[in-house]
Write a structure and sequence with these properties.
Blueprint lengths: L9 H14 L3 E7 L4 E6 L4 H5 L4 H10 L2 E6 L4 H8 L3 E9 L2 E8 L1 H8 L4 H14 L3 E4 L1
Parallel strand pairs: 2-3, 5-6
Antiparallel strand pairs: 1-2, 4-5
């Protein structure tokens, strides 16, 4: 499989640099959602603890300096593992590859659905983007 390199705009590069300097945690990916003033960071596997810091101090510090809400996800080389980290509420994960189009199907309990999808589908949009950027997943279906 071809490794896709991620492309970051100037804002993302700036935020990644700031975050890494403040927390000491290596960032793999970053998506900025200006409508909710939130930055989503995908952290190298095993480094999320570093990113959060003792009592959440590192991430709180970073939020203060950056001036945005920060959501952290841990990277996983395994697609299902990555989905589980993006959507901890996932009960079941199926990955389908049809003619090179990868679809991730995630089963979630009814009570968690609204939380996962988010207002106006914002969360699911970000999750789809992170999945596509990190694992070339073309579609995310929540059932």
């Amino acid at each position: 499989m071809m490794k896709m390199s991620l492309v970051f705009d100037t804002e993302a590069i700036h935020l990644i640099t700031l975050f890494e300097n403040v927390t000491g945690a290596p960032v793999k990916d970053c998506v900025v959602d200006n409508t909710t003033n939130t930055v989503y960071f995908v952290i190298e596997e095993g480094k999320v603890g570093t990113a959060i810091g003792k009592n959440g101090n590192s991430v709180k510090n970073a939020e203060r300096i950056i001036g945005k809400n920060i959501k952290l996800f841990e990277f996983s080389k395994d697609i299902s593992g990555f989905i589980k980290k993006l959507i901890p509420q996932a009960v079941e994960i199926k990955i389908r590859n049809e003619n090179g189009r990868i679809t991730a199907e995630v089963k979630i309990e009814k009570k968690d659905k609204a939380l996962v999808i988010g207002r106006d589908g914002r969360n699911i949009k970000i999750l789809k983007e992170l999945l596509h950027r990190n694992h070339q997943v073309n579609d995310l279906v929540v059932r």
